[in-house]
Design goal:
Length: about 210
């Protein structure tokens, strides 16, 4: 379980394909170390560390770790379109007793969205995203509500101006300078694909309401 409060931004050092899987090797930014079997959210996707070692990167010996994404994860998230050198938002799993500064995030991305607009507004930034939707997806809670929570690339954010038009859903978020500087939102522009995880509480309520009607 995660909170959507990004801890670090780190580059992908190497991507290797193996049948339907992809292995991502990244610089390890955590000074207290990373261990095999540890769960870390990458752009909001919970992945398990499978290997860790020291490696020469740009002439400097640094600690790196490797995670593996299977085909289903690659199909549902933006991990499949990432390239070596791209920066990824990282968050380690919550510890029992931690403050929940964001909201309850599972690290189970529901789908991707595409950025359609970026505006700077008095020192902060406004981002607009578009995603595919259907009546069946809406029944499962795959939608946003005004002032609710949504996770975009692993960042817990407050929803503004949500809308659904036909088979298109829309959601906007406002990003403060700290979040902009310390996450990969600073690299997002119109056309960028991001990961969406809708609020788990909203999904349970939507599912419960559907069961009551049946």
């Amino acid at each position: 379980m995660f909170s959507g409060i990004v801890e670090a931004l780190t580059p992908i050092i190497k991507i290797e394909s193996e049948q339907g899987n992809k292995h991502f090797t990244l610089c390890n930014p955590f000074k207290d170390g990373t261990t095999i079997d540890q769960s870390i959210a990458h752009n909001g996707v919970c992945l398990t560390v499978v290997k860790t070692n020291d490696q020469m990167v740009n002439g400097e010996m640094v600690n790196v770790y490797t995670v593996t994404a299977m085909q289903e994860t690659l199909n549902r998230t933006n991990l499949g379109v990432l390239k070596e050198g791209d920066y990824v938002n990282l968050e380690r799993a919550m510890q029992l007793g931690d403050r929940l500064d964001g909201h309850i995030v599972q690290g189970h991305v529901d789908q991707t969205a595409v950025c359609t607009e970026v505006k700077e507004t008095d020192g902060s930034w406004y981002f607009r995203f578009e995603y595919e939707t259907t009546p069946e997806m809406i029944k499962r809670g795959y939608f946003c509500v005004d002032k609710g929570s949504v996770t975009i690339n692993g960042v817990s954010l407050t929803v503004c101006d949500p809308d659904i038009q036909g088979n298109k859903g829309f959601v906007s978020v406002c990003i403060i300078p700290y979040t902009f500087d310390n996450t990969n939102f600073k690299f997002i522009q119109p056309g960028t694909i991001v990961n969406l995880e809708f609020d788990i509480i909203g999904k349970y309520l939507a599912r419960y309401n559907t069961l009551l009607k049946n």
